[in-house]
Amino acid sequence: MPELSICVLTRDNQDTCKTTISGILRDAQLGFELLVIDASETPNELKTYIGSLEDDRVRYVHVAAKDRQEHWNIAIPECNGDWLTFILDGDYIDPKIIEVIRRMKLDCPQVESLGWNKVDYDWPEQRSEVRATKISTEHGAYIVDKNEMRDRFFGYEKEGLIPFSIYHGIVKRELVERIRHKFGGVYFEHQITSYEFGYKVLAEANELAFTGRALSVLCTHSEDMLSEASILDDIEHKKSHFYRDINVIDNLSEFPFASDWSPKIFGAIVLRWLVDRYGDEFFVEGWESNFVKWREEECNALYSDKRFGELSTLYQKAIENWHNGKFSKLFAPKFNQKLLMQKDLIGCFHGFLFLDKNALGSTNPAEFYNVFQNFVPTTGSIGLKLVEKTKKAA
d(Cα 10, Cα 22) in Å, to the nearest integer? Predict the structure, then answer.
């Protein structure tokens, strides 16, 4: 049985997927299986390519899945590993994560999910602006305070992609099956699968670990990349890819915010859905004021005055009609063309490396990952402090 199942989910994106596969298999690491779960209507090209590799570590599975939720649910039973991780067909993940798994097995066997910092990357042909990528230079790993993480994410003190999830994180198979058994008899219930599963991991895991060392690269199709897009053309391009197999229905009680307004509120929409469905297990008192403050911050950071006007108006009206306007005074955005520092910043500052996405001629996520590995500690150095308890933010 493999120690790790790396599951690549793909749909009608075969050339990109082939590059992703070759990038992962280029690593000499053993002990993992690479599953390509293909929901393409015409699968022969990718199936033939994988057969030509003659690599026992990779396996091709064609599935009939109408949407992301069904696609991801079908994928898990195909995985044979003790630990599971999902990426999309334009992403990259480091197979040497197995070295961390082996250390955790010895030092802290109660850990059921490991998260890490991600690196964002646009493929050259998908790039409408050139930006640097922010990469953490940390490499220690820690067991985090699960209750604190739960309060931070459920209470909306922290916004963004949850590090402890099957998507660009690793989860122990036992936890995956407990989640299925407890929540609806399926692995994924909501179309925004990565947030949903991350929240359930926070609720159910015995222990969680986090490392600052980046172990994967996120690309165009992810919620996180869509959230960080700053140019309107770039936003529209990423939306067209993201919504190909996602259809979010807003049917939440007492939450007048729509999923198509902004990808930054996906997390809140999924969390409200879980509260409606399962109650207080996913509820933290006072989350509303934190959510409104994040909406103000989101608007303040927008590049486009047109986008600022549209989004701030939508939020303002919704907040005024929510809880009788109780939180209206917390929302007072101001358009000031606040540019993210990392847009033009190159170099090493305050524990982070800012690296141009064109660094050393890299043309895909695997090549970019190999470039920045020259500037940060090795994957093998992770885990030296794994047994220490900490409340350090993930």
Answer: 15
Alpha-carbon dihedral sign for residues 22, 23, 26, 30: negative
Could you read off the pLDDT of 23-74 as tens digits, one per residue? Answer: 999 998 999 999 999 999 888 899 999 999 999 999 999 999 888 899 999 9
Dihedrals phi, psi of 102, to nearest 5 degrees: -65, -40
Residue 279 CB burial class (10 angstroms; 0-12, 13-18, ≥19): exposed
Q: What is the pLDDT of residue 232?
A: 60
DSSP assignment letter at 285? T
In one-letter notation, the amino acid at residue 58 is V
Long-range own/partner contacts, residues 70-75 (CB < 8 A, 24 or more apart): 71/9, 71/11, 71/37, 71/39, 71/245, 72/9, 72/187, 72/188, 72/193, 73/186, 73/187, 73/188, 74/37, 75/7, 75/9, 75/35, 75/37
Query: How many residues would you count in the chain?
Result: 394
Task: Compute the average pLDDT of residues 129-136.
Answer: 75
Q: Would the pLDDT of 123 be above 70?
A: yes
Amino acid 269 reads I
CA distances (Å), origin 156, targets 68, 70, 232, 265, 294: 25, 28, 27, 11, 9
Q: How far apart are CA 216 and CA 369, in angstroms?
A: 8
Q: Where are the domains of the chain?
A: 228-330
Fill in the amino acid letter for 241.
H
E-state strands within 277-381: 347-349, 352-356
- % pLDDT > 90, the chain: 56
Phi, psi of 334 (to 5 degrees): -135, 125
> Count of CB atoms within 10 A of residue 321's CB?
11
Half-sphere exposure of 202 (CA within 13 A, CB side): 27
Measure CA 80 to chain center: 22
What percent of the chain has pLDDT above 70? 85
Q: What is the pLDDT of residue 126?
A: 67
Q: Which residues pair with 133 in a beta bridge?
A: 355
pLDDT, tens only, 340-360? 444 566 778 777 888 877 777
Mean pLDDT, range 161-187, rounded to an integer: 95
Q: What are phi and psi of 253, to 5 degrees?
A: -80, 135
